[in-house]
Design goal:
This protein is α/β, with parallel strands linked by helices and 190 residues long. It has a domain of 99 residues: Vaccinia Virus protein VP39 (Rossmann fold, 3-Layer(aba) Sandwich). 42% of the residues lie in helices and 23% in strands. The chain has a 4-stranded mixed sheet. A two-stranded parallel sheet has the order 1-2. The mean pLDDT is 95.
């Protein structure tokens, strides 16, 4: 079950998953239904806001079976902050926050067992540089729809983000969480 509030992303996901046992719903995550073996959140935690981190984690917990596992993949910061840089807040991610280790720790404290915490941040600037290259390469496909102002803003956004990761100011965290602890422990692949 996938939840997403973007009409375009839901349509894209449904097309890519056609014929597979995948259900992608146009719905807010807070309206989640059912109980699952596993839950995955990729690139969404940043958007729930610092006030909602714990309730987000609690909601995931409540929709997992007793032996359930939760993979939380999020861009994060090296220190606690309750807002973003003003340009990003205004043009790219209004209301978002990059959770620090302390914020994530507080959010899962007493709710989940932390099985693993992996930081991919040192490698993420290369991903952003590649996204920028591909964006510029494919720009003619989107130029008429989005215009020059969007192109300049998106290139600036990708370049700034690459810099924040290269400087190690921003990180890319991946937490593996379980409801009751995995018998024998988690065996991470590195």
């Amino acid at each position: 079950m996938g939840y997403n509030i973007s009409v375009e992303q839901v349509a894209w996901g449904r097309e890519k998953c056609k014929g597979l046992p995948v259900d992608i719903r146009l719905s807010d995550y807070r309206d989640a239904e059912g109980v699952y073996d596993k839950a995955v959140s990729i690139g969404m935690c940043e958007h729930v806001g610092w006030k909602n981190l714990r309730s987000f984690v609690r909601l995931v917990h409540d929709h997992l079976k007793p032996e359930g596992r939760f993979l939380l993949h999020t861009i994060g910061g090296i220190q606690e902050a309750r807002d973003l840089e003003p340009w990003l807040e205004k043009y790219i991610f209004p209301g978002a926050v990059l959770p620090s280790p302390a914020m994530l720790g507080k959010a899962v404290d007493g709710i989940f067992v932390l099985e693993d915490w992996h930081n991919f941040g040192a490698d993420y600037d290369r991903t952003l540089v590649e996204w920028r290259r591909r964006f510029e390469e494919s720009w003619p496909t989107f130029e008429a729809r989005y215009g020059e102002r969007f192109r300049r803003m998106w290139i600036y956004y990708l370049a700034c983000c690459a810099g924040t990761f290269r400087s190690r100011y921003n990180q890319l965290y991946q937490l593996t969480l379980s409801k009751v602890g995995i018998r024998g422990g988690w065996n991470p692949v590195r």
